[in-house]
Amino acid sequence: MVLLRKRRVVVLGEASFHWKNRYLTNEFGGLILEPQRIRTYDVDEEGNTLPSYREESVLLPLENPLFDYNEPYVDRKERDEWNIVGMMGQVYVRVNEDVQTGDYLMAINGIGQPSEKGNVKVMKLTKAYNAACGYGIALCFIK
User: Fold this and answer.
1) For an engineered disulfide with 28, which of 9, 61, 92, 115 has Cβ 3.0 to 4.6 Å away?
2) Can you give the pTM of this predicted structure?
3) Angle (nearest 5°) at CA 15 between 10 and 18
4) Options 3.30.300.20, 3.90.1720.10, 3.90.550.10, 2.40.300.10; CATH of 87-142
5) What is the pLDDT of residues 47-89, one digit of tens each?
């Protein structure tokens, strides 16, 4: 007899409901928000929309100009090229000019630098080192 246990998991970076790059993001992967005016219409007791409304300003994600509403979205779990990989976490990290993909990092004054040991590994460089700001950015895996 085989006993199977249910496992609870969270799939990070999955983008189940829309194209992953539908919205523009900053260099750390956060959404870029813009103020927009929206209308909220009043509804009567039967659920009918009334002509009266209120306008308010809200912050909404800025849509990527490359996004195409006509392109059908296929969930990643339905595509052959995607597989779930177990991991502890992915984060964007400021790095110095010496960091390369595959390096392990240690932090000195808040900037990641190559190290022989560590639990932070560079998966890819997402922004080249910029001397003016004093760092580049890397997507790293923390185990």
Assistant:
1) 92
2) 0.52
3) 150
4) 2.40.300.10
5) 899 888 899 999 999 999 998 888 887 777 777 776 655 456 7
